[in-house]
Amino acid sequence: MRTRRIAALGLLGLAALAVAALAVAVIANGGSGAAPPQATALPLHPVAGNFKPDDTTLLECSTSTCFEQAFGNIAYREGPKVALALFDDRIAKSGDNSECHRIAHAIGAASLTRYGGDVARTFAEGSSSCFSGYYHGVLERSLAKVKSYKPAVLGRVVRGLCKELRSRAVAWPGYHCLHGLGHGLMITTGYSLPLSLDVCNRLSTDWDRTACKSGAFMENISTSYGVRSRWLRDDDPVYPCNWVARDDKLKCYEIVTSRILPVVDWDWDKTAQMCASVEKGWASACFRSLGRDAAGTTKFEADEIVERCAFARPYGGEGSCIAGAALATTGAFTSAERSSVLCSTVPMDFRDRCYYAIGAVLRHFTGTSVEREADCRSITTNRRYLARCISGTRVSRPQTLDF
Question: Taking the model in full, what pTM does it have?
């Protein structure tokens, strides 16, 4: 059984680590609202600048940079659906390509250029392949030309970006828009976490604010441009979750183990112990994060997820860990097929929570309660577990959908 060092490639929340070579070396000014100082930078990755098509084709590519341009060219000329279908077939389906998230970014950026900056239309033709890289690329690109970094100005800009998608009955595209917005705010503001959270908090609903913060905290841990955020501490890997305002803590703690695990050399027992010792009221969220990472590092293999979540048992967090794994697995595959296997594998005491977690994510894939109930019925005939799944579909707050 592997218990400590796991290849970072598998980590659910760290897909963007591949984007390290083209760092934008900017350090935020503490969220003051002033424009972040601009340092000398390497040429910007296409997600942050204007995509420019050229004659690069897939046939000539052997490097990530080439594939980014080639897939971007296809998206720009033939549309994102064509590009994403090819991308899924050639890149994403392998599950082992560390550059897939970065290439998906480029497809999103190129598609936004194709549609003249129309975020809603671009999102409508996208997909969540490879950890939602397409959606992240769209939002990061859409914020590239913002001239003022005052929270009120940024707030006015971002409130309209995901409005049309959020108005639809199906919540999944809207969630990804807002999650990508959180990533984009961090990049746009030079990785100022306080400023990004301030802007997220200016969105209109709690659902919107929570989804936005999930992207901001993910970007803080795993920066798309390879820089190190100033809002991290090696001597306190729980930071900044134990520092941010109470209303900002949920999404921070639900991803915190993606920060803790590398710091403690992938010691799962030590990470579980740290979750148990976080500030009062947030241990469950930390254990859900542990489950999220257990799913990602095992490539969603049920038996191995159960083994990793067992490290949380002595600390009372095993159930929350399993719930986090079910949330992440359902989101990663946009279905309950794999997560239902997990629920049938976990100890009996935790199956109720597992099916409830599946429902909490399934609710975002369809627009009506009838469809959601049908989705739950498709994964279990057990009346008790079915009831728990259906109950989960009635959750109103975005759960751990970050993958």
Answer: 0.77
